[in-house]
Amino acid sequence: MQYVWFIWSLIILALWAIIYLSKKGYRKEMLKMSLITMPFGLTEPLFVPEYWMPPSLFHLAERTGFDIESLIFSFAIGGIGTVLYNLIFKKGYIDMPHTERSHQRHKLHIYILFVPAIVFVIFSLFTTLNHIYCGIIAMFFGGLATLYCRPDLKGKIWVGGILFTILYFIYFGSILPFYPQYVELYWNLDNLTHILVLGIPIEELLFAFTFGMYWSGLYEHLYWRKLIKSKEISTN
Length: 236
Known about the structure:
By secondary structure, the chain is mostly helical. The chain has helices at about 5-20, 25-35, 60-65, 70-90, 100, 110-115, 115-125, 130-150, 155-175, 180-185, 200-225, and strands spanning about 90-95, 195, 200, 225-230. It is built from eleven helices and four strands, in the order ααααβααααααββαβ.
């Protein structure tokens, strides 16, 4: 099972590549957000071995807490999470008019972008929660904060969370028929709820929902973009 995590990360990267190559109109957004997300793979020592301990290339996770697979995984989900809703509902982007940017709620724009980081640090320092729960809570609050600043993204944020959860459920489940003991062997279930959904830890699905919820609206929030129907702007 030494290379399962590596193969798994390549599977999600392959999906990223298929979308990137087949949907020219989303390439810029995918690449930007993937590059922003990729460094979060360097937070893996917060989760190893507290949350899980997967065998990794060159035994890096066991030796250092870091691994190459987390960087690949983070890169891939960043781009996919950004455009998944747009792909399903055929949406494109336009710039937000400056008249809308001057709205009262946007005065907190910069501060709201840092909500997930602030929440994560607070829960990490002042509670004994496993870091996976700190991350889930942080992204959930980040999504709610984005909703305050960008109520026009309400549909994308909630539905984006659901869509990414469905995708992640399929992705995670793809490995279990081949390695049915993988979760029991490498997840630290004694530190978690022990709730499994068809063999998948509930924490993974909560991560998927909150990540999809927050990340689906982050590009628009960060770069002052609005959604528009694809018939009004080409996304191919």
